[in-house]
Design a protein that fits this description.
The protein is α/β, with parallel strands linked by helices. The protein is built from 14 helices and twelve strands.
């Protein structure tokens, strides 16, 4: 496939793997890049700048294809500047930014040969990202997993709104997990997709506990919840006892101080690393309703783009036939 996204990122298919806190490490990133997409490492989940340097170098032992580093600057109370310096020193060619104000990070990348992707959840955010120098935006609808926008706008409406509002390429995110989603995104005007939840249920996502993957397999589109809405930071999770406890506390009017331990990174890791359903939680989008197996990343790509080609052929016959 050829779009402005494939040309911008020098990849075969317009698919970017999401940042996936605590999960997006070398094995998964390399597998996505080797399959023709853009794999990513999650910088802010690593303990130090040197750990990021080691992870970048590890990816390069597993693939010679382009990959990126994600900076989730809005969900961590830690400085990212030293991590960004490592990415620059190591010659990383793609940086994606989620959460927070991306401008200081983008300014630091000025003058470097680095493509800058910014995750947005609203038209105004996309326009700001374009104005400050983003090379592309990834627009996430409310179906997505993890942290979302506050406006509850679905992917089907958000993507064409953003496409109409900016000149830079747009990637669609939220509810996409197969070839149908990719073709729908292209039809809406996007030039690529970002996928997160679907890549958790792959063999190369080696850090995800089997219980987490099983929850994605067994769950339907009804088995996710949005936590932290009362804190102004809505985020979608797969239902666990831990996530239900958070929702109950929010329903009772508990504030940040009472919630902070329950919504912490430690409780996130308790489920995704240890399978602790009682206290833990895991990010997941409504696309879990479409997840039926745990393939290799290559098998997933082969399936998605065979399906995409079949859809393209069917549409050609159904819509453009002269008979």
């Amino acid at each position: 496939m050829k779009t402005r996204v494939t040309e911008l990122l020098s990849i075969r298919y317009p698919v970017v793997q999401g940042g996936l806190a605590y999960l997006a490490y070398a094995e998964l990133a390399a597998a996505v890049s080797n399959a023709g997409g853009l794999g990513q490492i999650t910088a802010m989940s690593l303990p130090s700048a040197e750990a990021l340097r080691e992870e970048i170098r590890k990816v390069r032992t597993l693939t010679d294809q382009p990959f990126g580093v994600n900076f989730a600057i809005g969900q961590h109370n830690r400085a990212y500047e030293h991590m960004l310096e490592v990415a620059i020193e190591e010659g990383v060619k793609v940086v994606s930014i989620t959460g927070g104000n991306p401008e200081p990070l983008i300014r630091r990348l000025d003058g470097h040969d680095v493509k800058k992707l910014v995750l947005v959840a609203a038209v105004r955010q996309a326009q700001k990202a374009e104005a400050i120098g983003a090379d592309a935006v990834m627009a996430v609808g409310q179906e997505g997993g993890g942290h979302l926008g506050r406006d509850d706008i679905g992917t089907m409406v958000l993507i064409p709104r953003v496409v109409d509002a900016v000149k830079i390429p747009v990637l669609a995110s939220g509810g996409i997990g197969d070839g149908r989603g990719i073709m729908a995104a292209l039809a809406l005007g996007a030039e690529g997709v970002e996928m997160g939840t679907r890549f958790i249920a792959t063999q190369e996502c080696v850090h995800a506990h089997p219980a987490y993957k099983e929850a994605l397999l067994k769950g339907t589109e009804h088995d996710t919840s949005v936590i932290k809405r009362t804190l102004g930071a809505p985020a979608r999770v797969v239902r666990t006892k831990g996530s239900e406890a958070i929702l109950e506390m929010e329903h009772k009017g508990f504030g940040y101080e009472q919630l902070k331990e329950h919504i912490s990174g430690a409780n996130n890791r308790a489920f995704i690393y240890e399978g602790n359903d009682e206290r833990g939680f895991g990010w997941a989008g409504q696309v879990i309703g479409l997840i039926q197996d745990v393939p290799t990343v290559q098998e997933l790509f082969d399936r998605m783009f065979t399906q995409a080609e079949q859809i393209s052929n069917r549409l050609q016959r159904a819509i453009f036939s002269k008979e």
